[in-house]
Write a structure and sequence with these properties.
single chain, mainly beta, seven-stranded mixed β-sheet, five-stranded mixed beta barrel, 0% helix
């Protein structure tokens, strides 16, 4: 999954006749229509932002819910204020089969992680040289060597493909943000389970990120087959919180 830079546009609300302002959610795009992980179907009747859903497989959107379609329980007309593609793929990398570049473990800055719609989702950033053409890649690795009843371990793998940070380009270093998802319902068979998420992080002190110091991080997520969890608030917050040093 190639990671790219995305920027959140400011959202302004000028109408008062909406059902809900600034609804933020993630979901899948099928035949150009967006179905949220909550199971709601959105039809775009107004759009104030760039982006085309029909070019995406999975997306994160911010929209105003304008009206509910008559005779339906879950179909809505919306004003789309922000659209971002979500990096995703169907196949899950497993530890027992991973090799070579798949095991590269460059650090990331992980800001949010959650489960919704049968997917494990993350909102993350990686340092990049703003004018370089070096591609960065993100992968989810399921650790099938540590499988136990009710507990599933995943590693987030980042491959910076050799991007170099030094004094010669420090003024061009920026954070590239992206969303990524991987389906876990095909692996997790229990109705309720525990997900252990591991990644290598840049060390963070206050609002500064160290490009030379790292730390191994482990977090736990409770998984429920029938539960829906919407985008955490921090996933749509300002992206300028961190400085590179």
């Amino acid at each position: 999954i190639a990671a790219g830079i995305i920027t959140l546009a400011a959202v302004s609300c000028t109408k008062d006749d909406t059902i809900r302002y600034n609804n933020a959610t993630m979901g899948n795009v099928v035949n150009g229509k967006f179905t949220s992980d909550q199971g709601n179907i959105f039809t775009i009747v107004d759009q104030t932002c760039p982006g085309k859903l029909d070019t995406m497989k999975r997306a994160f959107v911010i929209c105003d819910i304008l009206s509910q379609k008559a005779g339906t329980d879950n179909e809505y007309e919306v004003r789309m204020n922000y659209i971002s593609t979500v990096l995703t793929k169907n196949a899950i990398l497993t530890s027992s089969l991973a090799e070579g570049e798949e095991l590269v473990n460059d650090p990331i800055v992980l800001q949010s992680y959650w489960v919704s719609g049968g997917y494990l989702n993350i909102y993350f950033a990686v340092p990049v040289v703003s004018d370089s053409k070096v591609k960065h890649y993100i992968n989810f690795e399921y650790d099938d060597t540590k499988q136990s009843d009710g507990t599933y371990t995943f590693h987030i793998r980042h491959d910076g493909t050799g991007e170099v940070f030094n004094e010669s380009n420090d003024s061009k270093i920026a954070l590239a943000y992206a969303y990524a998802s991987v389906p876990v319902a095909q692996i997790i068979k229990e109705d309720n389970a525990r997900i252990i998420l591991n990644w290598l992080s840049h060390r963070i002190s206050g609002n500064a990120i160290s490009l030379t110091e790292t730390a191994e991080v482990k977090r736990e997520i409770l998984y429920s087959k029938d539960a829906f969890q919407q985008i955490p608030a921090e996933a749509v917050a300002s992206r300028s919180a961190y400085e590179i040093r």
